[in-house]
Specification:
Shape: globular
Number of helices: 15
Number of domains: 2
Helix content: 25-40%
Distance between the termini: 28 Å
Radius of gyration: 23 Å
Structural class: alpha+beta
């Protein structure tokens, strides 16, 4: 199925950048304006200058974040800040991080993966994309002619045997990582460069056995497809092994113990006061509603703890936490059995019907609050946070009208929806931690 290949990546020159922690970032779409400025200030070679450059009032067609990124990219290559790997390489990565009081590790591999249209069923999406975002990312890839950021993808390996076998081979050999650093969040990163044919073939042959599911990076994947087609229309002589046919991808097993999916809580703005006032009454026919006693505005941590205690992801049924600007009370909604089937069973596929994000999107946001499909795509209307406390604080501080707290979507739910060819609501998942940009860049040229 999926065609996995080692790549001759561009990597930071350790003589110029001895510590990668100074130059790596998470993906562009989870970087706040404040973080963007902090990364720009952190190091002159920080990859933020390529993936999310500053905008200026006098930007033009000839001078804008994309053209400046391309100029910076070319300069870093010519000055030896970025250097090309001498041989095609796969990158085995170990990402160490803290979660719920434990230190855990997610193992994965960075590789080139042949671009395939979704209809072939080799690479599967699970979330919708938006033309505005794809247009912006297309401008960047056209300017730089490179994949600057890896797509985060997952594959099924019930015993996690392939990755465990590679890991044991590395450990038993006593080989130390080629790259090791700790980022600003205290997360450890270890990278081994794999060029040995037997290890490369072991990984590639295993990943041919089934489809690959995109976890994060749908816009970048579709943009890479579009760019490939543009390039091939101008250069039909490029063969099937040309780098433009491949996209930089991070792959980890669905069954890896370090694969964490967090919720994407909704922070809602510009809700009409009338709909906000009637919200709980309108939901009363579909949900059992419990309200927190006391806990006036300002008691953010108290409200977050109350919600956390009642979300109980191990229990059946949909639970949604509600924090409203017009009232200090915090509420917990428990969906009653059969509601979604009765209301949406004829229009929503079964694989999506009982997802918490489907309940939230159709029943709460659209039916009760009156939002239209276009409103759901506007970040000025809905923003997202993996932090429950941050979502509560947004309302208590007066920055938002409403926050809606969710349990995380399970990986098996994502797999079932994608396998059936269904697209989930936007931001149905928040895979954590994000894959860093800056460990490897995939140039889309051959020399």
């Amino acid at each position: 199925m999926a065609d996995i290949q080692p790549i001759r990546a561009l990597v930071y020159n350790p003589l110029k950048v001895p510590n990668l922690s100074a130059v790596v970032t998470p993906p562009y779409d989870v970087i706040s304006p404040e973080e963007q400025e902090a990364f720009h200030s952190k190091h002159p070679f920080n990859i933020i200058r390529l993936i999310l450059g500053r905008k200026y009032p006098n930007d033009s067609e000839d001078d804008n974040p994309h053209t400046r990124a391309a100029a910076t990219f070319r300069r870093w290559i010519s000055e030896g800040v970025l250097v090309r790997e001498p041989t095609p390489t796969l990158y085995l990565t170990a990402h160490d991080f803290d979660h719920q009081g434990e230190r855990i590790t997610r193992w994965g591999v960075l590789a080139g993966v042949r671009l395939e249209p979704f209809e072939k069923g080799i690479i599967l999406p699970h979330e919708t994309t938006f033309s505005k975002v794809k247009t912006e990312r297309l401008g960047l890839i056209q300017a730089c002619n490179a994949n600057l950021s890896p797509i985060f993808s997952i594959y099924s390996d019930p015993e996690n045997g392939m990755m465990e076998g590679i890991r044991q081979a590395i450990v038993s050999s006593g080989r130390v990582p080629d790259i090791a650093f700790t980022n600003g969040e205290g997360q450890g990163h270890r990278v081994w460069k794999l060029t040995e044919p037997r290890l490369v073939e072991r990984i590639a042959s295993h990943l041919k056995q089934g489809p690959v599911l995109i976890a994060d990076g749908h816009h970048r994947y579709e943009t890479a497809l579009q760019y490939r087609d543009l390039v091939l229309s101008r250069h039909p002589e490029f063969g099937a092994s040309h780098p433009v046919h491949f996209v930089l991808m991070y792959l980890t097993a669905m069954e890896d113990s370090g694969l964490v999916v967090m919720p994407a809580h909704r922070i809602v703005h510009r809700v009409s006061p009338e709909r906000l006032e009637r919200m709980l009454d309108a939901l009363g026919s579909c949900f059992d509603i419990e309200q927190m006693e006391g806990g006036g505005k300002g008691a953010v941590e108290e409200a977050a703890r109350w919600l956390e205690d009642r979300m109980a992801p191990q229990a059946p049924g949909t639970r949604i936490g509600v924090i409203r600007r017009d009232r200090p009370q915090v509420s917990m909604l428990q969906l009653r059995p059969g509601v979604m089937e009765r209301r949406y069973g004829k229009t929503v596929p079964a694989e999506l019907l009982e997802l918490d994000v489907t309940v939230l999107t159709h029943l709460v946001l659209m039916d009760v609050l009156g939002l239209e499909a276009k409103d759901l795509d506007e970040e000025s209307t809905i923003s997202y946070s993996k932090s429950m406390s941050q979502a509560v604080s947004a309302v208590y501080s007066g920055k938002a009208d409403l926050s809606l707290i969710l349990n995380p979507t399970r990986v098996d739910q994502v797999r079932k929806a994608a396998a059936a060819g269904h697209i989930m609501p936007r931001k149905s998942t928040y895979f954590y931690p994000k894959v860093l940009d800056g460990i490897a860049i995939h140039p889309l040229w051959t020399d």
